[in-house]
Structures are given as structure tokens and as C-alpha cells.
Write a structure and sequence with these properties.
Distance between the termini: 105 Å
Oligomer: single chain
Order of helices and strands: HHHHH
Shape: elongated
Helix content: over 70%
Number of helices: 5
Strand content: under 5%
Number of domains: 2
Length: 169
């Protein structure tokens, strides 16, 4: 299948503009991530190149691709990404001790909630087990009554045989 020269020219123009459009997508995504106004990545995201690619709507390989000479395909994107990420890390490292305490308490709260959930599951399991054991005990009591009745019947038959009341021999 041969493409017309008009279509080939259109494809060449499209592909010639692609790096410019991709760079623009990545810069806009960095702006949104820096401001916290992300569209595709959830708030509180982890600063990673995968999230940058997701926010920009491009493949991760676009962000981390290197040229044959070993340089980044989009060096200004990678540099700006690293600057913002380091700035965020420094800001997080120098956060107020109250913020750290809040984070610590929230983590403890999450741990306690998980522990509470696990304990509730264990109580539920044990409750089911108690019900099963109660049902078994009730069945055993029924069997014991049946056994006692059968023992009485056997004793009555044996007494009747011993006294000669049974004519079958």
C-alpha cells in the first residue's frame, strides 16, 4: 500500500511537531504537579517520573529516554523535575515538628484502625467457631440421649432374656 505524497508530507509535518507538543505536555504537567492541581494523578501523589508521564499523558519512556550520545531526550524537563522534587524533599525535611507529630499520630491511628479491623475479624471468626462448637455440643447431647435410651432398651431386653421372658432362643 503506497501513501500519496500529500499524506507523506502531512505525516512528516505531524512527526516534526511531535517533540514540541510532547515538551509542552510535559511542561504543563510539571506546572500542574508543582501547583498541586493535577488532572490525571491523584492529590498527594509521589513525585516520580512515572507520575509525570501519567499526568502529561505520555509514555514513561518519553520522560526517561536518552539519545544515542547519552543525554536526555528532554533535558530541561528532567532538570526541572529534579529541581522541584529536591525542593519538595527539602521542604518536607524542614517541616515543623508539629507536622511530624501529626503524621506520626496519623500513622499510629492507621495502625490502630488496622489492628482494630484484624481484631474484629478474629472476634467474628471466634464467634462462628463458638456457634459451631455449640451446635456440635447440642448434637452430642442428642446422641447421648439416644445412646442412653438404647442402653436402657438393651438392658431391658437382657433382663427379659435372663428372666426367661423371651421365648426366642
Amino acid at each position: 500500500m503506497k501513501l500519496s505524497t500529500k499524506k507523506m508530507a502531512g505525516l512528516r509535518r505531524y512527526h516534526a511537531d511531535r517533540p514540541i507538543k510532547t515538551r509542552l505536555k510535559l511542561l504543563e504537567a510539571l506546572d500542574r504537579m508543582e501547583s498541586g492541581q493535577t488532572v490525571k494523578v491523584s492529590p498527594g501523589f509521589h513525585w516520580s517520573k512515572a507520575n509525570l508521564a501519567r499526568e502529561a499523558g505520555v509514555n514513561i519512556n518519553t520522560v526517561v529516554r536518552k539519545l544515542p550520545d547519552g543525554k536526555w531526550a528532554f533535558p530541561e524537563i528532567n532538570e526541572r523535575f529534579e529541581q522541584i522534587r529536591q525542593k519538595r524533599q527539602r521542604a518536607a525535611a524542614t517541616s515543623d515538628s508539629r507536622d511530624e507529630k501529626i503524621v506520626e499520630l496519623r500513622n499510629q491511628l492507621d495502625g490502630l484502625r488496622e489492628q482494630n479491623r484484624q481484631l474484629a475479624l478474629e472476634v467474628n471468626r471466634m464467634g462462628r467457631q463458638v456457634l459451631e462448637e455449640r451446635e456440635k455440643a447440642e448434637r452430642m447431647m442428642l446422641y447421648e440421649r439416644q445412646n442412653a435410651s438404647l442402653r436402657d432398651e438393651i438392658s431391658r431386653i437382657q433382663r427379659a432374656r435372663a428372666s426367661g421372658g423371651d421365648s426366642r432362643a
